Amino acid sequence: GKDQWPRGDEGVWRDGMRTVDKDVQAVTRSIVGHVQTSLARQAYNLDNLGAYQAAALSARDDLLVNWNTTQLTFTRKQPKRAYYLSLEFLMGRTLDNALLNLGLKDKFTDGVQKLGFNMEDVIEQERDAALGNGGLGRLAACYLDSSASQELPVWGYGLRYKYGIFQQLISPQGEQLEAPDPWLDNQNPWELPRLDVTYDIRFYGRADRLDDGTGRAVWHGGQEVLAVAYDVMIPGYDTASTNNLRLWESKPQRGFDLNSFNAGNYEGAVEASNSASAITSVLYPNDHTTCAPNRSIPIHFGKELRLKQQYFWTAASLADIMRRFKNAGKNIREFPDFVAIQLNDTHPTLAIPELMRILIDDEDLTWDQAWTIVTNTFFYTNHTVLPEALEKWPVPLIENVLPRHMQIIYDISMNGQVLLASNHVSDIQLTAFVEGQPKQVRMAHLACIGSRKVNGVAELHSELVQTTILKDFVEFEGVSKFGNVTNGITPRRWLDQCNPELSALITKTLKIEKSVWLKDLTKLEGLLPFAEDKAFRAQWSAIKQRNKERLAHHVQTTLGLIIRTDAMFDVQIKRIHEYKRQTLNILGVIHRYFALKKMTPEEKKKVNRRVVFFAGKAAPAYYIAKLTIRLIVNVARVINADPDTKEYLQLYFLPDYSVSLAEVLIPASDISQHISTAGTEASGTSNMKFCLNGGLLLGTVDGANIEIAEEVGENNVFFFGHLTPAVEDLRYQHLYHPVPIEEKCPPLAFVLNQISAGVFGGDGVYEPLLNTIRQSDYYLITDDFDSYIATLEMVDEAYLDKEEWIKKSIRTTAKMGKFSSDRAINEYAESYWNIEPVSIPTGGL
Ligand code: 9GP
């Protein structure tokens, strides 16, 4: 329509439009301008932080031009859009990525240098946006990058936590301590406050069903909280396409409650304002647990606040999606033709009853009409089959906080059962997702029944979803509703940005533009013949060596530790969790330590030198995981100080793992460990990052490890351990036919006894951790230890044959094309969301 064009003279508008195509002079002018005006600082005594802020604002101007054009194009063309609802987006730093995607990295590097700064130092000033716990949040970030890069109309929706994942400190005793992460303190140039985009979100109160036979209800009273939008621009690589990530902040509706204030109840008034702001104040630091196992959780991490976060975010996002849909003037029945909503895990499942509520209570649709729309709109991705990670909400809690939604959930459950009966399914338990005593709602079941399709994140995992937790639904709804989309990673951040030298070598070798292979990662296969080329191998290995030195330099400047770089770098970095088995790794290190101590000097000469790195956070209330960290830190102290061994074995726990730390660690690794008990790691994504950077994989037959091995060939990976089908039996035997460790696995018994005897200090503090292995050993350490040690020895042997090792490394990188998140996001776009790319013109109206 006409209102899509500007007021006044179009030519004058066009003339005023900024464009992105800048030369170095335009870059420096823009940076200087921001120093002068946006920062109000002087040219002299500007520090690195100031330079970063000005450079960021300048890059942001460019992003905004593209972002505006993209949004305008969507509004005009009205394509079907997809919305990615994720409670976590682990973005990391933005400046470097923005410049790469805009194609302005060289010009900015040049310009910044002319202004007297070094680009690397400037980039280092940025704090990570750490609005996530681990793989699930980082996956969401990679998917946004790929969506924009492929010009797909996808928006993300999340929460703007004031505090991201806690900062991890290590105490003198080796314990994890947590400090807040006030990442917004230095102001955030990458977000645009949209103070005009707000919604009122209701909690508590009453839901009264109307007795007019329509099934409608009126929900009223309770508390109303304001949701305010903040937009984060997501630039695509080598395209103007720039998507949006909309994050919600909670605010009290009217500053504070004037009524209470006037009635002299100052405290009450301020309290209401506090509780409204509390909703988006902090990211929940629990990974794979709805609350910590066997522990009472601190009050500020209470369940009710988590439920309020989930509803606040889904309700604001749906209201926003609905408003956009209606502005386009479409009929509500067409909703699924224009909107696809992806539920990232069960966290946004309340969107299902919320959309039902909107359609029935506000839009006057019948139950059946509403249900048809809902079940054609949502898609659900499951990310874990671990029982303790499957969300369940107590019915009384939902009834109190969201009374109308509880009614709807009951109705969905009842309708499911009626359907079942009519399908002659005998076991009507299966949609009883409201169950147990006290009654709980199983969110995975609700997400499944309310979605058009359900997928897992790697082949094995998707099969387990169908044969275990959602088995009944497969029978009931048919297998075609269930699928697999193996996870992926963006090669822009996880190769080009974090490993620029390797990226340059690849471009030179493939003799194609970087932008070609970075957008079609299968092109890496062209490296295969070069595995046979000695000169190429030398370059490949020299880059690995420089990446090790870069890591050593980083550790020296940040922690003051000297690391030797003439050794194999062996890395395990991920959340600390029993199922991921960092314990197996540290027990293996201790085993190696004692083996070294027994060796003669002659024997030692043949030893493969190893530096072992750990990094990762433990949930603050996860006692066993925290003990694991403490053990690693204290073993490191003993080993690194022992003159008998320190030349051959070093061990480091690097504190405060983050996206930025991963970017330094991953390119430096020779081998990385992904050693979860078979069947427990849904996919893993760091396994892909290491392999893409030419690190080899030591792992169990689990998650995406399996598909990586299929691609790169089993002779290029190191597998060990029992397979998934054996796990249940082994656990059964531990419980009913236990064999003492001394008999079952003497080398492991020796290691455990040394820890108990206090060789690594601790005064008995590790007993609860050791007992998890001595007693039920749920994660099968005793079953897999021998094959783990044997495989570590194979790795040593393989590494000593340097040339063969480099060949494996090259072949691994060459075959990682499948694991680009571009491939994954295309599968979602085509087979799930049914959306298509929209090409975006560069610049202008
Ligand atoms: O544990 C999975 C991890 O294996 C996977 O790579 C990641 C992304 O799909 O999701 C993790 N799951 C969760 O964080 C919680 O369900």
From TrEMBL:
GO terms for biological process: glycogen catabolic process. Keywords: Allosteric enzyme, Carbohydrate metabolism, Cytoplasm, Glycosyltransferase, Pyridoxal phosphate, Transferase. One of its GO terms (molecular function) is glycogen phosphorylase activity. Its cofactor is pyridoxal 5'-phosphate. Signal peptide: none annotated. The modification N6-(pyridoxal phosphate)lysine is found at K689. It is found in: Cytoplasm. Belongs to the glycogen phosphorylase family. Allosteric enzyme that catalyzes the rate-limiting step in glycogen catabolism, the phosphorolytic cleavage of glycogen to produce glucose-1-phosphate, and plays a central role in maintaining cellular and organismal glucose homeostasis. This is Alpha-1,4 glucan phosphorylase.
